[in-house]
Write a structure and sequence with these properties.
Layout lengths: L5 E2 L5 H7 L3 E3 L11 H13 L3 E3 L2 H8 L3 H9 L14 H14 L10 H13 L19 H14 L3 H8 L1 H6 L17 E4 L13 E6 L2 E4 H16 L2
Parallel strand pairs: 1-2, 2-3
Antiparallel strand pairs: 4-5, 5-6
Helix pairs in contact: 4-5, 7-8
Length: about 240
Protein backbone atom coordinates (compact mmCIF):
# COMPACT_ATOMS: atom_id res chain seq x y z
CA UNK A 1 0.00 0.00 0.00
CA UNK A 2 3.01 2.27 -0.41
CA UNK A 3 3.35 2.67 3.35
CA UNK A 4 6.75 2.85 5.04
CA UNK A 5 7.38 0.06 7.54
CA UNK A 6 9.39 0.87 10.63
CA UNK A 7 10.05 -1.28 13.67
CA UNK A 8 12.46 -3.05 15.96
CA UNK A 9 15.14 -5.49 14.81
CA UNK A 10 13.04 -8.56 15.60
CA UNK A 11 14.76 -10.63 12.90
CA UNK A 12 18.34 -11.04 11.69
CA UNK A 13 19.95 -8.16 9.85
CA UNK A 14 19.88 -10.22 6.65
CA UNK A 15 16.13 -10.79 6.99
CA UNK A 16 15.52 -7.12 7.70
CA UNK A 17 17.46 -6.11 4.59
CA UNK A 18 15.34 -8.45 2.47
CA UNK A 19 12.03 -7.68 4.19
CA UNK A 20 11.43 -4.21 2.84
CA UNK A 21 11.54 -2.62 6.29
CA UNK A 22 12.29 1.09 5.91
CA UNK A 23 13.86 1.86 9.28
CA UNK A 24 15.13 0.08 12.37
CA UNK A 25 14.45 1.57 15.79
CA UNK A 26 17.17 1.20 18.46
CA UNK A 27 19.61 -0.32 15.94
CA UNK A 28 20.56 -3.99 16.36
CA UNK A 29 20.57 -5.41 19.87
CA UNK A 30 22.53 -7.40 20.71
CA UNK A 31 25.18 -5.84 18.44
CA UNK A 32 26.70 -7.68 15.50
CA UNK A 33 29.62 -9.28 17.34
CA UNK A 34 29.18 -12.61 15.55
CA UNK A 35 30.07 -11.05 12.21
CA UNK A 36 33.54 -10.23 10.94
CA UNK A 37 34.43 -6.66 10.06
CA UNK A 38 34.15 -7.52 6.36
CA UNK A 39 30.76 -9.16 6.83
CA UNK A 40 29.47 -6.13 8.72
CA UNK A 41 30.81 -3.82 6.02
CA UNK A 42 28.92 -5.74 3.33
CA UNK A 43 25.71 -5.80 5.36
CA UNK A 44 25.95 -2.08 6.08
CA UNK A 45 26.56 -1.46 2.37
CA UNK A 46 23.28 -3.25 1.68
CA UNK A 47 21.49 -1.21 4.35
CA UNK A 48 22.69 1.97 2.65
CA UNK A 49 21.80 0.65 -0.82
CA UNK A 50 18.27 -0.24 0.30
CA UNK A 51 17.98 3.14 2.05
CA UNK A 52 17.10 1.53 5.37
CA UNK A 53 17.42 4.17 8.08
CA UNK A 54 18.69 3.45 11.59
CA UNK A 55 17.27 5.32 14.59
CA UNK A 56 19.63 4.28 17.42
CA UNK A 57 17.91 6.14 20.32
CA UNK A 58 21.22 6.41 22.17
CA UNK A 59 19.64 8.60 24.84
CA UNK A 60 17.50 5.63 25.82
CA UNK A 61 20.74 4.02 26.96
CA UNK A 62 22.48 6.98 28.58
CA UNK A 63 19.33 8.60 29.94
CA UNK A 64 17.38 5.54 31.03
CA UNK A 65 18.92 2.06 30.81
CA UNK A 66 22.25 3.13 32.32
CA UNK A 67 20.63 5.09 35.16
CA UNK A 68 20.37 3.22 38.46
CA UNK A 69 16.79 2.27 39.20
CA UNK A 70 17.04 3.83 42.66
CA UNK A 71 17.88 7.23 41.14
CA UNK A 72 15.13 6.86 38.54
CA UNK A 73 12.66 6.26 41.37
CA UNK A 74 13.87 9.38 43.21
CA UNK A 75 13.41 11.53 40.10
CA UNK A 76 9.93 10.14 39.45
CA UNK A 77 8.85 10.96 43.01
CA UNK A 78 10.53 14.39 43.06
CA UNK A 79 7.49 16.58 42.42
CA UNK A 80 9.50 19.81 42.78
CA UNK A 81 11.95 18.87 40.04
CA UNK A 82 14.95 19.44 42.30
CA UNK A 83 16.86 16.44 40.91
CA UNK A 84 15.96 17.15 37.28
CA UNK A 85 14.23 20.42 36.42
CA UNK A 86 12.61 18.88 33.33
CA UNK A 87 10.48 16.69 35.59
CA UNK A 88 8.15 19.60 36.39
CA UNK A 89 6.85 19.74 32.82
CA UNK A 90 5.53 16.18 32.72
CA UNK A 91 1.89 15.19 32.84
CA UNK A 92 0.51 13.11 35.67
CA UNK A 93 -0.25 10.35 33.18
CA UNK A 94 3.37 10.13 32.06
CA UNK A 95 4.66 10.19 35.64
CA UNK A 96 2.39 7.27 36.55
CA UNK A 97 3.64 5.42 33.49
CA UNK A 98 7.22 6.06 34.58
CA UNK A 99 6.41 4.87 38.09
CA UNK A 100 5.14 1.58 36.65
CA UNK A 101 8.30 1.23 34.56
CA UNK A 102 10.50 1.76 37.62
CA UNK A 103 8.61 -1.01 39.42
CA UNK A 104 9.01 -3.33 36.44
CA UNK A 105 12.73 -2.57 36.14
CA UNK A 106 13.33 -4.16 39.54
CA UNK A 107 12.95 -7.48 37.72
CA UNK A 108 14.99 -6.28 34.72
CA UNK A 109 18.24 -8.25 34.39
CA UNK A 110 19.41 -7.05 30.96
CA UNK A 111 22.97 -5.67 31.23
CA UNK A 112 22.92 -2.96 28.59
CA UNK A 113 26.29 -1.50 29.59
CA UNK A 114 28.28 -4.45 28.22
CA UNK A 115 26.79 -3.91 24.75
CA UNK A 116 27.63 -0.21 24.48
CA UNK A 117 31.14 -0.51 22.91
CA UNK A 118 29.92 -2.90 20.21
CA UNK A 119 26.77 -0.87 19.58
CA UNK A 120 28.81 2.29 19.03
CA UNK A 121 31.24 0.37 16.79
CA UNK A 122 28.34 -0.78 14.62
CA UNK A 123 26.93 2.73 14.35
CA UNK A 124 30.31 4.22 13.43
CA UNK A 125 30.77 1.59 10.74
CA UNK A 126 27.24 2.21 9.45
CA UNK A 127 27.97 5.89 9.16
CA UNK A 128 31.18 5.16 7.24
CA UNK A 129 29.17 2.91 4.90
CA UNK A 130 26.65 5.63 4.17
CA UNK A 131 23.76 4.27 6.24
CA UNK A 132 21.30 7.02 7.13
CA UNK A 133 21.18 7.62 10.90
CA UNK A 134 18.27 9.63 12.30
CA UNK A 135 17.75 10.93 15.85
CA UNK A 136 14.98 9.52 18.00
CA UNK A 137 14.40 9.31 21.74
CA UNK A 138 11.89 6.52 22.46
CA UNK A 139 9.75 9.06 24.27
CA UNK A 140 7.59 7.76 27.17
CA UNK A 141 10.42 5.56 28.42
CA UNK A 142 11.35 6.51 31.97
CA UNK A 143 13.65 9.58 32.14
CA UNK A 144 13.22 10.35 28.44
CA UNK A 145 11.84 13.90 28.30
CA UNK A 146 9.70 15.01 25.33
CA UNK A 147 11.61 17.65 23.38
CA UNK A 148 14.54 17.98 25.76
CA UNK A 149 15.92 14.51 25.07
CA UNK A 150 16.17 15.15 21.33
CA UNK A 151 18.97 17.62 22.04
CA UNK A 152 20.68 14.90 24.10
CA UNK A 153 20.37 12.48 21.19
CA UNK A 154 22.01 14.93 18.79
CA UNK A 155 24.86 15.38 21.26
CA UNK A 156 25.40 11.63 21.53
CA UNK A 157 25.38 11.15 17.77
CA UNK A 158 28.18 13.71 17.53
CA UNK A 159 30.26 12.76 20.58
CA UNK A 160 29.81 8.97 20.56
CA UNK A 161 29.18 8.03 16.93
CA UNK A 162 31.39 10.69 15.40
CA UNK A 163 29.04 12.39 12.97
CA UNK A 164 29.66 16.09 12.39
CA UNK A 165 27.36 18.79 13.78
CA UNK A 166 26.20 19.49 10.22
CA UNK A 167 25.35 15.81 9.74
CA UNK A 168 23.45 15.88 13.03
CA UNK A 169 21.37 18.86 11.91
CA UNK A 170 20.61 17.25 8.55
CA UNK A 171 19.68 14.00 10.31
CA UNK A 172 17.05 15.87 12.34
CA UNK A 173 15.62 18.00 9.53
CA UNK A 174 16.08 17.02 5.89
CA UNK A 175 16.40 13.28 6.36
CA UNK A 176 13.15 12.78 8.35
CA UNK A 177 11.28 14.88 5.78
CA UNK A 178 12.67 12.68 2.99
CA UNK A 179 11.87 9.52 4.96
CA UNK A 180 8.21 10.51 5.23
CA UNK A 181 8.04 11.73 1.63
CA UNK A 182 7.48 15.31 2.77
CA UNK A 183 10.70 16.82 1.39
CA UNK A 184 8.75 19.16 -0.89
CA UNK A 185 7.20 20.98 2.06
CA UNK A 186 9.52 20.31 5.03
CA UNK A 187 13.10 19.67 6.00
CA UNK A 188 14.98 22.59 4.45
CA UNK A 189 14.60 26.36 4.31
CA UNK A 190 13.35 27.10 0.81
CA UNK A 191 10.80 29.36 -0.84
CA UNK A 192 7.37 27.77 -0.83
CA UNK A 193 8.02 25.36 2.04
CA UNK A 194 6.26 25.46 5.40
CA UNK A 195 7.87 28.10 7.62
CA UNK A 196 8.86 25.93 10.59
CA UNK A 197 12.14 27.28 11.96
CA UNK A 198 14.21 27.30 15.14
CA UNK A 199 16.35 30.42 15.63
CA UNK A 200 19.43 29.99 17.80
CA UNK A 201 21.64 32.36 19.77
CA UNK A 202 24.82 30.45 18.87
CA UNK A 203 26.10 28.43 15.93
CA UNK A 204 25.37 24.68 16.29
CA UNK A 205 28.12 23.93 13.77
CA UNK A 206 30.60 25.15 16.38
CA UNK A 207 29.02 23.09 19.17
CA UNK A 208 25.99 20.85 18.72
CA UNK A 209 24.75 21.70 22.23
CA UNK A 210 23.99 25.18 20.87
CA UNK A 211 20.72 23.73 19.55
CA UNK A 212 19.49 24.29 23.10
CA UNK A 213 20.11 28.05 22.91
CA UNK A 214 16.79 28.85 21.32
CA UNK A 215 15.95 32.52 20.89
CA UNK A 216 12.75 32.10 18.85
CA UNK A 217 10.64 29.57 16.98
CA UNK A 218 8.61 30.03 13.81
CA UNK A 219 5.66 27.61 13.55
CA UNK A 220 3.92 27.59 10.18
CA UNK A 221 4.92 31.22 9.72
CA UNK A 222 3.97 32.35 13.24
CA UNK A 223 6.87 33.99 15.10
CA UNK A 224 7.26 32.98 18.76
CA UNK A 225 9.97 34.97 20.59
CA UNK A 226 11.82 33.61 23.59
CA UNK A 227 9.51 35.41 26.01
CA UNK A 228 6.50 33.62 24.51
CA UNK A 229 8.27 30.27 24.64
CA UNK A 230 9.07 30.83 28.32
CA UNK A 231 5.42 31.65 29.04
CA UNK A 232 4.36 28.49 27.23
CA UNK A 233 6.73 26.44 29.37
CA UNK A 234 5.38 28.12 32.49
CA UNK A 235 1.85 27.22 31.40
CA UNK A 236 2.90 23.60 30.89
CA UNK A 237 4.48 23.54 34.35
CA UNK A 238 1.33 25.00 35.91
CA UNK A 239 -0.89 22.48 34.16
CA UNK A 240 1.37 19.59 35.16
CA UNK A 241 1.38 20.67 38.82
CA UNK A 242 -2.42 20.36 39.00
CA UNK A 243 -2.40 16.68 38.13
Amino acid sequence: NNLALTGHAVASIEEIIQSGQHSVEHSFSPPLDNYTAEQRKELFRQLAEKKIAIVPTLINGEGSLLVANERAALIVDDTRGALDSRRKYLSGYLIEDWREQVAERKEFSFDFKKFVPSLLRDLREMRESGVRLMPGTDVAVVLIYPGFSLHDELRLLVTEVGITPMEALVSATRHPAEFFGMQYSLGTIEKGKIADLVLLEANPLDEISNTRKITAVVVNGRFLPKSTLQRMLADVEAAASKK
